[in-house]
Amino acid sequence: MVIIKSLAEIELMRESALIVSRTLGMLAKEIQPGVTTLQLDRLAETFIRDHQAKPGFLGLYDFPNTLCVSPNEQVVHGIPNDVPLESGDILSVDCGALKNGFYGDHAYTFEVGEVTKETQKLLEVTKKSLYLGIAAFCSGNRVGDLGYAIQQYTESFGYGVVRELVGHGLGKEMHEAPELPNYGKRGRGKKFVDGMVVAIEPMINMGTKDIRHFKDGWTIKTADNKPSAHFEHNVALIDGKPQLLSTFDPIYEALGIESDEELPFKKTTSLA
Ligand code: MG
Ligand code: MG
User: Fold this and answer.
1) How far apart are CA 40 and CA 81, in angstroms?
2) How many C-beta atoms lie closer than 10 Å to residue 252's C-beta?
3) Which of 33, 128, 182, 208 is most buried by its number of CB atoms within 10 A?
4) How far apart are CA 204 and CA 190, in angstroms?
5) Ligand 1: centre distance to CA 264 (Å)
6) What is the CA radius of gyration of the chain?
7) What residue ranges define each of the domains in the chain, with the CATH number in brackets?
8) In angstroms, what is the span from residue 178 Cα to ligand 1's centroid?
9) 16 near 173, Cβ under 8 Å?
10) What's the average model confidence in pLDDT over 48-59?
11) Contact, 37 vs 85, CB < 8 A?
12) Torsion sign over Cα 62, 4, 263, 16
């Protein structure tokens, strides 16, 4: 059952989402060759607690850490460890925060040092597909329209769309209905209605869509060991339109990147 949120609840959810956004922005400066993902995890946990929130993943389904960190061929759910990052790596960082009883949950794939053009393209296309998915999250559309938008764009580059992992509703639970596959058929599935809050999160592989599970019970990697990218935003449907609750702005500020990709989906405030 989809749990519809009031505007007041959506504002609380924005707070939770923005704590994650700021955590990712703080991490953006720290993600360098030589740094370990366990060091990043400790920084993130401290940062979240300093913002009067709780790490959203720690202990959830018995996950052992604050961050899911998935380098290179790892798709999602990687566990922080003491292996130093190297130049040329990419690192998907997924982070959750719980505040006022609501979860924030969003993710970004970072470049470590210098990465290949081929890998940069994977990141660029995956992030673009996230915004195509967000644009499709509007009244009149259905779950299948969002999946279709992500799938047809990313597959046009020959990339693989992971089937086993999907976006989801978000609220007092980390994973609520509906499931949001990053593939689908237009006009199919649940209708989008005002008050829905979702996590849209394309997981896109450079090669095959197929995945493998690590023996640790968590980590998921690509079957062909080619890289995988993951970008995630939290979005509310208000007056028929998608509105971002999370933002990559703190990441872009830290890295000196200029971007207007979020503008169509930002909350507009009246100047009157
Ligand atoms: Mg996530
Ligand atoms: Mg999620």
Assistant:
1) 10
2) 16
3) 182
4) 23
5) 22
6) 17
7) 7-265 (3.90.230.10)
8) 15
9) no
10) 98
11) yes
12) negative
Nearest ligand, measured from the Cα of 20: 1
The yes-or-no verdict on residue 41 having pLDDT over 80 is yes
Show Cβ contacts of residue 268 under 8 Å, excluding neighbours closer than 6 positions.
none
Phi, psi (rounded to 5 degrees) for 194: -55, 140
**DSSP secondary structure of 75-117:** EE-PPP-SPBP-TT-EEEEEEEEEETTEEEEEEEEEE-SS--H
Structure tokens that stand for 10 in this block:
């959506």
Q: How many CA atoms lie within 13 A of 31 on its CB side?
A: 27
CA 107 to centroid of ligand 2, rounded, Å: 8
> Which of the ligands is closest to the CA of residue 169?
2
pLDDT, average across residues 230-256: 98
Q: Which of 200, 180, 236 is nearest to 4 (CA)?
A: 236
Q: Which two tokens stand for residue 79?
A: 């566990």
CA of 94 to the centre of ligand 1 (A): 5
Residue 272 has pLDDT above 70, yes or no: no
- Cα 64 to Cα 32, 164, 244: the distances in Å are 23, 22, 29
Which ligand has the minimum distance to the alpha carbon of residue 95? 1
Ligand 2 center–CA 134 separation, angstroms: 14
For ligand 1, the distance from its centroid to the CA atom of residue 166, given in whole angstroms, is 10
Contact (CB, 8 A) for 69 and 46? no
Specify the pTM.
0.97
